[in-house]
Every structure is written in C-alpha cells, then in structure tokens.
Specification:
The chain is elongated and about 190 Å long. A hairpin with a 2-residue loop joins strand 37 and strand 38. The chain starts with a strand and ends with a helix. 39% of the residues are buried. It is α+β, with helices and mostly antiparallel strands. Helix 9 crosses helix 10, helix 22 runs parallel beside helix 25 and helix 24 runs antiparallel to helix 34. The protein has 34 helices and 70 strands.
C-alpha cells in the first residue's frame, strides 16, 4: 500500500536560506547515522553493527544481519523481507503495535536527528495515503535548507530509500526534493512548476509544501497512521542549522490499493484529482453497492502520479455539474402503469433503476445523482438523467457497463442500448447573421466526431429536402459537417433549428445536438419621408426641391436599391445611397403639373435589397397641387334687404378640390356658414352657390369662399350689405278681418319694432289703391295707421295691406286685412269701439303686444246680441311665442347647425313645463317650430334626438287628443305637418362615428345605419320598445346604395291616433317611417311586419301617408304595396319610402276580396249585356213599338240600359283611379262622381217610370193618355229629377270641398252627407217599385168568380214567380239589399249577394227586359228571314188574370179600391175578352213581356 504525504514548511526569507552546497553537506552526514535511519540506496553504512546491539537505533533495535550488503544499507530488500515476514520488527515496535519506526522514536531522538541535520526520505510499501506538512522557520544566517530540515524530520519513518549516486552523489528523489528548495538562482524553473513538488514561497515567512510517497504492506496500518497524524500536536517548531522551522500540517492526500498489474487509487477528503488527468479516471471494480465505499480509479503500476491535490475550483469533478440525458432499453413488455407516476410498478422500476444508475455512474468525476425521469413504450425505454462532472466517452461506457452488473437480471437490460445526448460539442453557425424575409440562409453544424447519420429539425418538425430546403452532409473525416440551405425565408421559418449527429462508442450510442434560434425579421423601412404635399407652381418649391428618403433599422454593407415613379404627374429625381438609407431629390417642373391634375398623387416607391435575396419597399405618396384662381360673383350688387334673397357664386379653375368653405367676416366676428340647404356645390364645374332665401342682419358682412385641397386653401371675397326691412311675420296688422260701414272711416294699422335705424316709406293699399300712412311711436313699436272710407256702397269684400319700402327701394307687404262691407240696408247690431257689425258678423283682431314684440295668432269675435263676444282665442303664450321667434331666427341664421342642439334642449324644457297647457294655438305653434327646425342638418347625438322626441311625446299625449281633432279640421293638417317634421328631422341626421344611435322615448323609437363600402348585411331593425306593439323593417340589397348613405327608421305609437282616417277605419299598428339620404335604386323594396293592436278588426290594408293628397293636407293611400296577413301580424312589401301603417275596419272587406272580384266581373258582363240590349232594341224598335204602352215600355228599358251603361263605365273609371291619382286629378274625380251620381239616379228614375207605367196600366185600365204626354212625363222624370239632384248636390258641397270622399271618387258622407242625395231618392224609388210589385202580386192572387181548380192555382203561382223575376231587376228592387250591407257586423253573404245582384243588373235587363219578350224574339226571327210564327191568338197573361174589367171610367175615389180588387166586374164564363179589355190587356201584357 502506498500513501503520499505533503509537508509545508515556513522558513526564513529567501536571502537567509542555506545554499545547495550546505544542503548537500547535511545530506552526506546521513552516512554517520545508524543503519535503520538511512535512506534506501543512499547512505553508506558507517560500520558493521549487530542486530540489536546496544545503542543502535537509540535503543529501538537494529535490522537483521541479512540486510547488510557490501557495507551499505539495502533498505529496499530489507523492506521486502519485512513484507515477506523474513524479518521481524524490533520487539519494542511490535509491542507498541506501531508499523512505523516513528512510533518508537522519542523526542530525544528527534532532537538528535535535527541536530545531525540528516535528510531522510522513507518509502514503505504500504497502500497509498497522503501527508501534508507545513513547517515555519525563522530567519537565521546559518540555518540549513528548510527542505533539508523537513527531510530530517521525516527520516524516522522507515528504512532509508536513497543512496548516494556515483556521478552526482544523490538519488533522483533526493534531487527532486532538493529541486523544490526556493532561494537559489541555479535551481531549474521547470522543477519549481512540478505539481508533486510545489514549494510555495511568500516571504516572510516562506512556506514550502513537500509531497512524500510512503508504501505499506499492510493496509490495516493506514487508519492508525491517519489517526496518529490527526492527533499530532501541530504546529511545532524546531531549529535546524540555526534556522527555526515550524511544521504547520501533515495531511494524507492519496491512497492506492495495489494488485499485481495495477493500483486502485482514491483521494482523501478535501483532496481531488488534478484536472489534467480527469478524463483518464476509470473506476475500479467494486464488490459492494454500499454507499460508504470510496470511489477508486485504476492506475498503472508503478504509479508515479499525479497525486490528489488540495481540492480547488480547477480540480477534477469540481465546479458546476453537467446534466447528461441518457436512455436505455429494457427487454420487457411495456405496461400502462409505467405512465402513472403514482403506480406501484412505476415506483418499483424507478427505485431499482435509480439504485443501479447511482451505483454505475457514482464514480464519475463530480458525480451528483442519477435519476430515472420516465418510461417510453416500445419494449421499455428508460429515460434517465445523470448529473456529474465532465466525463469522457470511455468513462460513460465503463459506467454504463457497471449499471448492467448492478441491475437485477429480470429487467433484461440491453447493454448495447445505452444512449447519451452530448451537448455543447456542436459548432452551429448561421449565415447571414441578420436574417430578413426573402433571404437565402445557410445553417451549418460541425462536430469533432465521425457521425453515422445526420438529421435537421425545425421545432418538432423534421426537415426534408424540398424546393426551399436543401441539405448536405460530410462525414468523411474525423469532423462531421451538415449544411442546411433555406431560400426565400419567411417569418414562419423563425424558430429553433436542431442538427442531430448520431454515432457509437463501443457499446454506447452517442447523440450530438446543436441548437440555434433563428429569427426572421421583415426588412423594415423604419424611417422614411412622410407623405407630403407639393405646390407645383410655388417658386419656393421650385427653388428648393424636396428630398425623399427611406432607411432600414441597421447597417447593411450590401444594401442596394432603386426608386420607381408611378403617377399621372411624372416628376422624377436623382437617387443616392448610403449603408442604410437612400435619398431621392425631386426635380419639380411647373409644366408637368397641369391645373386639371391638381390634387393628383404620385407614388414614389423606395426599393431596398439586402444582397441575400430579401427586399423591402415603401411607397411615399406626394400630392401635387396647383394654386387655384378663385372668383366670386353676386346676384345683387352690394346690398340686399332683410327678407329678400340673394346668391353668391364661387368658381375655381381647379376642379380637384376637397371641400368648399363659406365664411362671413363682420368686424372681429368670423362666422362659418353651416347651412347645408342653402349651399349647392357642383364638383365637376368647381362652383359653389350660396343662396340665401331670407336675408337677416346675420348675413351682413364680407363673404369669403375658400376652396380647400388638402392643406392648400385658395379664397375670394365679396361684401354684402343687408339693409333693414321688416319681415312679413313681424308686421302686426289690426284688424285682421272686420266689417265696415259704407261712407264711414275704418282705422287700419300696421306696427313694427322700433329697433331700426331705417326710415321706411309706408303706404296702405286697399283695392290696389295706395294711401299714405301716418307714423306714430307706441312704446317700443312704430305704428302706421290710416282711416279708410269706402264710398261705393255695394256689398263686397275688400282687401287691404300696408307696404314698407326701404332706402334701396325694396318693399315688403303685410298680411292681408279683410274688410267686409256692410250694405246700407243691413241692420247694425254691434257698434262697440266704433266697430260696427251685423248680427253674426266676425271680427278678427291681432293678439296682445308685448314689450318688444307681439304675440302670434288672433282673437275671433262674433257679433251676438248686440255686442262683440270673444268666440275663440288663437293667441300663443309668451313662452311659445318666444320659442317661435327664436326658431325662425335660427332657421334663417348662418350658424343654424351649431345653435340647434341648445335650442332643442331649451325647447324640450319649456314644453315639458307647459305640458298641461290645452291651447290649440300653442300646440300648432309647437308643431310649426318642430317643422321649421327639422330642415337643419344636425349630428345624430343621442341627447339631441331625445330632446326632439321628448317634445313630440308631450304634444301627442292622450290629453291632447281633442286639440288634434280640432287642428285637423283646418286648412293645413297639423298632424300631417308633425309627421312630416319628424320624418324630415330623421332624414337630416348626420352620422356620428359612422353610426346612428338607437334612441327610444315614450312614443317614438329611432334606429338607423350607415351604408359602408363593404356592407353585406341587410337593413333589419326590430322595434319593440313602444309598449306591447312591435314592428320590423327589412331592406335587402343595401349594397346597391352609395357608400356613406344613411337609412333611418322611426316608429310612432301615438301618431297613428291623431292622423285623420276614413270613417270606420282604424290605424291598428305602429306607424313606421323610413328615410334614405340618397336616391333609392330601381329595384328597391322595403318589407315591414306590423303587429296587430286589435285582433278583432278585419280587412287589413297596407297604407302609407301621402303628404300631397287631399289638397296637400295628407291622407292614407294603399297603392304600391302588397299585403300578407298572418294571425297576429301583417307583412307589407312596398317599393317606396313614406310613413307606413295598416288600416283595419270591423267589417269592411279587404281589397281584392270576393266582393271586388264579383263587382268587377259583374260590371264587365253588365256593360256588355247593356250594349247588346241597346243594339237589340235599336234593331227591333219599329216592330215592338206598335202601340203606346209598348213604346213607352221600350223607351224606359232603353234609357234605363243607357243610363246604367254610362254609370257603370264611369264606375270602372273611378275604380281605376287610386287615392293618390284622385287627389292629383281632382277635376276628373269630381266629374266622375257627378256623372255616376247623375246616371245612377237616371237609371233609378227610369225604373220608377217603368213601374209607374205598369201601375198605370194595372189600375187605370180604361184611361188612355197620349204617347206624347207619356213620353214627356217619363223623360222629365227620368232625366229631369236626377239632374236636379245631381246639380244641387255639387253646387252646395263643392265650394266647401266636401263633395267627394277623401279616399274614393264618390259622394262624401263624413263632412257634408252629400251621399244622401243619392241614397234617399234611390231608396224611395225602391220602396215605390216594391209597392208596385206588391200590387202586381195582389192582382195575381185576386180570385175570379167561382172556385179555382188546382191547375189554375199552379198557374197562378207560376205567374207570380214570373212577375217577380221580371220586375225585380227592371224596377231596381235588388238595390234594396243595400239596407243589409250598411248594418254593422252584417254577414258577408249579404255583401256578396248585393254585389252579385247589382253588378249583374245589366244582364238581368237584357234577359228579362229584352230576350224574354216574345215580340222581340219574333221580330228578331223575322229580321233573320226565319219561318214566321203564327201566334195570332192572344194569350192570356197574368195581366188578364189580375186586371179587372171596368165598364166605366174610373174616378180617383175608386182608385184605392181598385188597387186591392174590391170593386169591379169579373168575367165569369167567357174566355174571350171584350175589345176594350183586349187592348188594355195587350198593353199590360207588353209591360211584362
């Protein structure tokens, strides 16, 4: 066994150390030492001594005689003899059980050795340990070398080791020891650097470290020796050659256990193998897995170092451990429990494998741990991690083989499956260093080993050869190289790239991995010229041409590029380049920039390339402008009066402008003109016209028109002076209307505000005659008056007004003053305040005058009971009057748009405070205000819309319903005006942030959208916030609308209740209005779904409100819409936009119902039948009118047919006229109504004439009237009476516009009851003809003398039925069914029957009045040359049966009795009538035949 000790000595400073000559003299003194104290092969014997002789070895005994050879101490052989047991240790030593001579040495012997100054190196064949001694010395001039002193101290350890060499006198070991002495220049520097012989010198004091190798034959001595040195009192001092030295420490460093061929060496605690031989450390075979066993490493014999050193950061296995990821395969089946870390199988496998791994790899230098990390299927692949210092492949392979030894055979580990991943051995390079999109890059991996296979990965994806990827591998030398080339890289190519080399070392698989993170960046141009604007004709620009540039973020030596120019204005420049930028200096030429091209954008493209394939470009847009020449002109010279209009026209020679701005400069005030309605712009001609309809003082000033093209502004100006002149509405007249007496003066007055500097020329105009006015100031008003006297005393109405003329000759007239002249003969009833009037006369006066203005409206007085009594006060309140004045001023203001939001808020607040007011004048004024301001475009802010809608909510409340009914009777429908106002307000909403807000109040809900260029969705809005009623608006194909168009829909829940409707019709849903800000396309279609409010109502109609109907008062129209009815909703599909709703009635049939089809088809049949009837009558007229009765009968039938024909034709005409057309063609509708009324009455009166003729022939049998007389009577009755009714009706109702209905061309009922002029005569005629029919039936039923047979009774019943069939259509009795249809909730069957019977009346007249007549049939047969019928026999008709025979003329007193057959003579037996009765019978027969 060997061990190596290390001594450290501290001695005197270097200059005090003894020379090498002195050291040699000290070493030579060894020859005088006893033989047991001599170093082996070094010192000669001083003499021959017997073993155990007294005094030898200081009483410790001497060696056996056999150890002496040639007078020299052969300690090596001696030591071997000791090891073989041939020699025995001295008894004293054996008794002490101490293997070293030093154990028997006393302090006295140590002192003797020190005094002798011998240097002894003792080597014993023991297993290796290490001694570390530190000695300190004090400076002394004659002290020996510290090395010599140290060796003296160690000479007691064993037999001498060295002998004096013949050449040099020293053994090499001695030379080594001597070479470690510091202080002589002759010593070799390389000897000072030997690790085994390090002498650390840092004076004062000097420190020396000495390594000493000791061999022991018995390893059991190692621990006692260690214990001895641990207990050795240190430090201790001694004096050698007058040099004081101190031994500080003695440490064992290395222990080796030797075998025949090699040693197994290990380091003591605190010591480690030097790093220079770390990779050669191969662990010795171990017998046990006990963790206490130290790791030994195999060394060749003889082991001459290097030895373990004091552990430091450079020692083997010291420092940060390396983690090695490894794997091995077990030849066992994989079980799913190995995936579960908590399973017992997993835990068992892990514990067993961890134990084997720690045992196998535990002796790797710097070993920390070996841990199983997981299992993979495919047999069982074990992943584990070894944490240790850097290890060589040989060490890993050797340790892996040891793992197999320590693992149970049941695991069936495969020895050749050990695999380790080697990191940080691969050289990975990427070219270029900065990678940009589009570059071609090269990735190269190199490893200092021969690889068998190479793969590339991008992330987890294996890279294969492709159009963009190419790979090359070179494994021909000891260095392996792999190259991956990627062309046209993108940002998707960024990520981690891994190159993997695989090879094998003995039984272990080696994997080399190189990883590099690749970042592909876009070649960004980070700085560049901004998009700029250049004025082509600017001298400054032409003198200093702009310079464009673009730069990338970094210096690229291979950066190249160019500039491209694209645009209508082809202005080029000169390029220049630097390492990261390029510049382009423009050459601006005026001739290249034409006026019509102003505002044109030229794109300059900067293109940069990296040199590796990547390139980037940036577009710089330069807008070239040309300064425009702007001109402005006016429709007036320089002045215009208040209330008058004027226009300004602004023109530019550059048409490519962006906007036109109008401003008014007045003093220090600059006011923008924000009146969208008064500015008309034509972009193609570059003109803008500002047209002011009503000038006010706000329009006074200098007008500046500015054409803006981006940031370039060109302007022109003109000054307009607005001269004062009162507006018509600001002139108060008194009276408004008054009666005046002839030849008596009547005062008429006009007043204006006194706040004016203009002196007006005021005159009164009465009947086109002018009279000068007298001027007076009354408070804050200037009043002008004139006393007018009318001298022509004829009853007539006079009109007067006052006229104001200002300094520039422009004038304004007040409202008309109506003066009603009282004739001399009229009786004056009222005469208060010199205002005269007859009973019932009306006096209208203006409202009260306030401080600075007067109230709008009027007061109506009526002369009643000799006094003027106030009948109606139409004056508005002061608050409403103020709001009205403000609204009028705002509408006529240039800043209407900016002032509207504040006004709406104030309006809402005032109206809410006055919500309990019940004045119809105030209500009408509020609607006027809403209508006036609705023309002002305003941004669609939610608060603004709510203010407007809240005002509407207040005025349409249920408490105002009676006021609305009163207002709707006027010349202007206020409810229609309100609807128009809300619709116009929504149309003028301007989007905010490209959107229209969803707003709802109590009775209104608004939704909308802005059509963008990429709008694909339909316009689909649901309205559900107005109570229980809902509605939906759907407009498809909105992509056909222009971009930035707006669609706005408003739902009304209360407005439908105040809009006028026809009688018996109800608005049964919400009212929906939808507006577009642009013209709609031709295929436009809007679909609206309305929820029914009252499900009991029937016959829905899709209607829209037409503001132009009813003399512009507005009305519902049902044209251009299709209806689809559901159970609780109605779908209306229309092709236009106006307010829509549905009208329903309790019992009115729906449009296109069964009655409509019956009416239209029946009328067509009747018209054709009546034409045929008239033609037949004209053909057989002469044949069938051979007597008076037949003549009159056919005259009645012919005129009845003609009247019905004309009436039916006009009916068809009116049916084709829609409600819209009816209002637009008012005259046609009135004419159609008149003729329908006239000719239907004619038909009725001709039917009455026919009935009267029948009655006349039945009752007055013996009375004969001339044909002329009868003809005159029936014509007067047939045409005269209807004409009187028709003309009277139209004459009475037409002036009041109440002749026709609002929704149809027929007589009015709601307003004038004009329809009674038709109903009363018609029903009277039906009643009379019904009476006549009853007379006929009675005559038929009256029996002859004697009883009737059954045959006669059947014949009588047949005659009755025949008479009813003939007389019912001829006498118009079918119209009696009209009584059933006017009853509410009557059954539909009555409506169908009434329509059927009356529509086919013409057919009935043809059949029963013409074709059923035997004479007509005979005449037609004769006319067509057919065989004549011999019907000379006079047939007894029902008329014979019913006509009594009178033998005398009948007085009127008997007429009533004859009607019921109570008197007269009866034919009893004769079947032949008398001659008289024959004539009358034939006459009566002709009436029914």
């Amino acid at each position: 066994m060997q061990f190596v000790s290390q001594m450290v000595l501290y001695t005197a400073p270097y200059e005090q150390l003894p020379s090498s000559h002195h050291l040699t003299q000290h070493l030579q003194q060894c020859s005088r030492l006893p033989p047991c104290l001599c170093a082996a092969d070094s010192c000669p014997w001083a003499g021959t001594r017997e073993v155990g002789s007294p005094g030898s070895c200081s009483g410790l005994g001497v060696l056996h005689e056999k150890s002496r050879r040639d007078g020299r101490c052969r300690s090596r052989e001696h030591a071997k003899a000791l090891a073989r047991g041939d020699l025995q240790w001295p008894v004293a030593l054996q008794q002490r059980n101490d293997p070293f001579c030093i154990l028997g040495w006393k302090e006295q012997f140590l002192q003797e050795l020190t005094a002798a100054g011998c240097l002894v190196i003792t080597v014993l064949y023991l297993h290796v340990t290490m001694l570390h001694l530190k000695l300190y010395s004090k400076a002394d001039n004659n002290m020996p070398s510290p090395v010599t002193a140290a060796l003296h101290l160690l000479s007691l350890l064993a037999t001498t080791r060295f002998q004096t060499s013949q050449a040099s006198g020293f053994d090499p070991l001695t030379q080594s020891a001597i070479g470690r002495e510091v202080g002589e220049e002759s010593f070799q520097p390389e000897l000072q650097r030997q690790k085994r012989n390090v002498l650390i010198f840092d004076p004062p004091p000097l420190e020396y470290a000495i390594d000493i190798e000791v061999s022991l034959t018995n390893s059991s001595f190692v621990e006692p020796i260690k214990e001895y040195f641990r207990n050795l009192p240190l430090p201790f001092s001694t004096n050698i050659s007058d040099v004081e030295m101190t031994v500080s420490s003695v440490n064992i460093t290395t222990v080796c256990v030797t075998t025949e061929n090699q040693s197994c060496c290990s380091c003591e605690s605190g010591y480690a193998w030097p790093s220079m031989g770390c990779s050669d450390l191969i662990s010795c075979p171990s017998i046990s897995l006990a963790p206490s066993q130290p790791c030994g490493y195999t060394r060749e014999k003889p082991f001459l170092g290097p030895y373990c050193e004091l552990q430091n950061k450079d020692s083997c296995g010291v420092g940060e451990p390396t983690v090695m990821n490894m794997s091995v395969r077990l030849g066992t089946a994989f079980h799913d429990d190995l995936r579960n870390h908590s399973s017992q199988l997993y835990k068992k496998y892990k514990a067993d494998l961890d134990k084997a791994f720690n045992a196998g790899y535990g002796c790797l230098p710097g070993f920390v741990s070996a841990t199983t990390t997981g299992f993979r299927p495919g047999s069982v692949d074990v992943n584990y991690r070894v944490e240790a210092g850097s290890a060589s492949f040989h060490q890993l392979e050797h340790s892996s083989r040891r793992v197999v030894q320590y693992l149970d055979e049941s695991y069936n580990i495969e020895p050749t499956s050990f695999t380790t991943e080697i990191m940080n051995r691969t050289n990975f390079t990427v070219s270029p260093a900065h990678i940009f999109e589009g570059d071609a890059i090269q990735l190269m991996c190199e490893v200092d080993a021969t690889a068998e296979n190479t793969t590339w990965n991008h992330g987890s994806q294996i890279i294969l050869n492709s159009s963009r990827h190419s790979m090359k591998t070179d494994n021909s030398t000891a260095m392996s190289r792999a190259v991956l080339t990627i062309i046209n890289v993108t940002q998707e190519d960024s990520g981690t790239y891994t190159c993997t080399f695989t090879s094998r070392y003995l039984s272990i698989n080696l994997i080399y991995r190189g990883t590099e993170e690749i970042r592909v960046s876009p070649l960004r141009i980070i700085s560049y010229s901004n998009n700029d604007k250049v004025s082509c004709n600017s001298p400054e620009i032409q003198a200093n041409s702009p310079v464009l540039f673009c730069c990338i973020d970094g210096q690229l030596p291979l950066l190249t590029g160019n500039w491209k120019v694209n645009g209508a204005i082809n202005i080029t420049g000169v390029p220049s380049f630097s390492s990261n930028c390029t510049e382009y200096k423009l050459n601006v030429v005026d001739s290249l920039c034409l006026a019509e091209q102003s505002g044109t954008v030229t794109t300059y493209t900067c293109e940069l390339q990296t040199g590796h394939g990547a390139q980037s470009s940036w577009d710089i847009r330069i807008t070239y402008f040309r300064e425009a020449q702007v001109r402005i002109s006016s429709s007036v010279n320089t002045s215009v009066s208040v209330g008058y209009g004027f226009s300004l026209k602004c023109e530019s020679d550059v048409s490519n402008y962006d906007s036109i701005r109008w401003e008014i400069h007045s003093g220090d005030r600059i006011q923008a003109v924000e009146c969208a309605a008064c500015i008309t712009t034509n972009k193609s001609t570059a003109t803008s016209v500002l047209e002011v309809n009503t000038a006010t003082q706000d329009w006074n000033g200098t007008y500046v028109c500015t054409f803006s093209q981006d940031s370039l502004n060109n302007s022109a100006s003109m000054t307009i002076n607005v001269i004062p002149l009162p507006l018509k509405q600001y002139i108060q007249i008194d009276p408004v209307e008054a009666p005046i007496m002839c030849r008596m003066p009547q005062a008429i007055n006009c007043c204006i505000s006194a706040d004016t500097v203009e002196d007006y020329d005021v005159t009164f105009v009465v009947q086109e005659k002018e009279f000068p006015a007298e001027k007076k100031k009354r408070g804050n008003f200037l009043c002008y008056s004139y006393n007018y006297t009318e001298m022509e005393c004829r009853g007539k109405e006079l009109e007067a007004h006052c006229k104001f003329v200002n300094s520039i000759g422009q004038e304004v007239s007040s409202e008309r003053i109506q003066l009603n002249l009282i004739a001399d003969e009229d009786i004056i009833s009222c005469s208060e305040n010199n205002t005269f009037g007859r009973e019932g006369d009306v006096l209208i006066k203006s409202c009260s005058v306030l401080n600075t203005t007067f109230l709008r409206g009027s007061k109506i007085y009526k002369c009643c009971s000799k006094s003027w009594k106030l009948e109606k006060n139409d004056c508005v309140s002061e608050q409403i009057n103020s709001l009205l004045l403000t609204a009028e001023s705002l509408v006529n203001s240039p800043s209407a748009k900016t002032g509207l939001p504040d006004f709406l808020q104030n309006l809402k607040n005032q109206i809410v405070l006055l919500q309990d007011d019940n004045s119809s004048a105030n209500l009408a004024a509020i609607v006027t205000i809403l209508y006036s301001i609705s023309s002002i475009p305003i941004e669609a802010e939610k608060s603004t819309i709510i203010d407007y809608f809240t005002t509407v909510d207040v005025i349409v409340a249920d408490s105002k319903k009676e006021l609305w009914a009163d207002l709707n009777q006027g010349r202007i429908s206020i409810s229609s005006l309100l609807l128009n106002a809300v619709e116009r307000f929504s149309e003028n909403l301007l989007p905010v942030n490209n959107s229209i807000p969803h707003v709802s109040t109590e009775t209104l809900e608004l939704q909308g959208m802005v059509v963008t260029g990429h709008s694909q969705a339909d316009y689909n809005k649901d309205f559900s916030r107005l109570g229980n009623l809902t509605a939906r608006v759907l407009i498809d194909k909105i992509e056909t609308l222009p971009p930035n168009s707006t669609i706005v829909s408003v739902a009304y829940s209360a407005l439908g209740r105040i809009l006028p409707v026809n009688a018996n019709m109800y608005v049964n849903s919400l009212v929906i209005s939808t507006v577009l800000s642009c013209e709609r396309s031709q295929n436009f279609r809007i679909n609206m779904t309305f929820q029914k409010e009252n499900l009991s109502l029937k016959a829905p109609q899709c209607v829209f409100w037409d503001f132009n109907l009813n003399n512009s008062r507005g009305s519902w129209d049902n044209q251009s819409c299709t209806l689809t009815e559901g159970e609780d909703n109605v779908l209306c599909s229309c092709n236009h936009l106006t307010p829509f709703s549905i009208l329903m009635s309790p019992d009115k049939p729906a449009p296109n119902s069964v009655e409509d089809y019956i009416t239209h088809i029946g009328l067509a049949i009747s018209i054709l039948s009546l034409v045929v009837c008239i033609v037949i009558e004209s053909l057989v007229w002469k044949t069938v009118t051979n007597n008076t009765t037949s003549y009159v009968r056919h005259v009645c039938i012919l005129n009845t047919a003609a009247s019905l024909l004309i009436a039916d034709v006009w009916f068809i005409v009116t049916a084709s006229i829609s409600e819209r057309s009816m209002q637009r063609r008012r005259e046609i509708c009135v004419a159609a109504t008149f003729f329908i009324h006239l000719f239907y009455l004619c038909a009725f009166f001709w039917m009455l004439s026919l009935g009267l003729i029948l009655f006349y022939r039945l009752v007055f049998i013996l009375h004969n009237t001339s044909k002329t007389c009868q003809k005159a009577v029936v014509f007067c009755l047939g045409y005269g009476c209807p004409f009187v009714f028709a003309v009277t009706t139209i004459a009475v109702t037409l002036p009041w516009d109440t002749y026709t209905r609002k929704d149809a061309c027929w007589l009015n009922w709601e307003d004038s009851k004009a329809i009674l002029a038709f109903v009363i005569p018609a029903l009277a005629i039906v009643a009379m003809n019904l009476f006549i029919t009853a007379v006929v039936i009675i005559k038929i039923l009256r029996p002859n003398i004697g009883d009737r047979t059954n045959k006669q009774e059947r014949k009588t019943l047949f005659q009755i039925c025949k008479s009813l069939i003939i007389l019912t259509p001829l006498l118009g009795l079918t119209w009696g069914f009209g009584l059933t249809v006017i009853i509410k909730h009557s059954h539909q069957a009555f409506h169908i029957l009434f329509a059927l019977l009356n529509a086919l009346q013409g057919l009935f007249i043809l059949v029963f009045g013409t074709l059923w007549d035997n004479k007509i049939k005979e005449a037609l047969l004769k006319r067509n040359s057919l065989s004549r019928w011999s019907s000379q026999q006079t047939k007894s008709t029902s008329l014979i049966l019913v006509a009594p025979m009178f033998s005398m003329s009948y007085p009127f007193s008997r007429t009533f009795n004859n009607l019921f057959g109570k008197t007269g003579k009866y034919t009893v037996s004769s079947s032949e009538p008398s001659s008289a009765s024959t004539e009358n019978t034939s006459k009566s027969d002709s009436l029914l035949n």
